[in-house]
């Protein structure tokens, strides 16, 4: 318990420091690859979210998903790559190779599909090499470049709104 409190404290400091260095996107390029970061505690239908994105003209191989889980059930089989708080050290370093590969992939857009501020998720969003980041309005405004107001459960409305703004911004 003490370790968890201490870990949250240090992750919070790490996130605050990285957010101060955050730069706005410089290039106006079209979106061809999408990364999706999902908090399974509040939205467990990552595959339906991917299908909704595919309905807007993207192919499945253009979309990668990373799922954040609070706890891992040992016998449960998960299709998407995932991580738990145990995979993140007290200094914010990631120990899982799949997650490191996801964060190092230079996506054209990262969708941060979570609306509860968790420093573990925020550190992942900040460390991502994505050019353009999109998320909910309940998260720190410095994490995302485009903020859309909505509810996690209403994913169809959120994706429709996102693609409406991407057309306005000439990103698709």
Overview of this protein structure:
This is DUF6913 domain-containing protein. The chain is an alpha/beta fold and 172 residues long. The protein has one domain: Rossmann fold (3-Layer(aba) Sandwich). The chain is 34% helix and 15% strand. The longest helix is centred in the first third of the chain and has 19 residues. The mean pLDDT is 82.
Task: Offer a few descriptive terms.
DUF6913, alpha/beta, DUF6913 domain-containing protein, Rossmann fold, six-stranded parallel sheet, 172 residues
Write a short abstract of this structure.
The protein is an alpha/beta fold and 172 residues long.
Largest sheet: 6 strands, parallel
Point out poorly predicted stretches.
Answer: none
SSE topology string? HEHEEHEHEEH
Strand order of the largest sheet: 3-2-1-4-5-6
Protein name: DUF6913 domain-containing protein
Organism: Flavobacterium ardleyense
InterPro entries: DUF6913
Produce the secondary structure layout.
Elements: H1 2-20, E1 34-39, H2 46-54, E2 63-68, E3 82-83, H3 97-104, E4 109-113, H4 119-127, E5 133-136, E6 146-148, H5 155-168
Parallel strand pairs: 1-2, 1-4, 2-3, 4-5, 5-6
Helix pairs in contact: 1-4
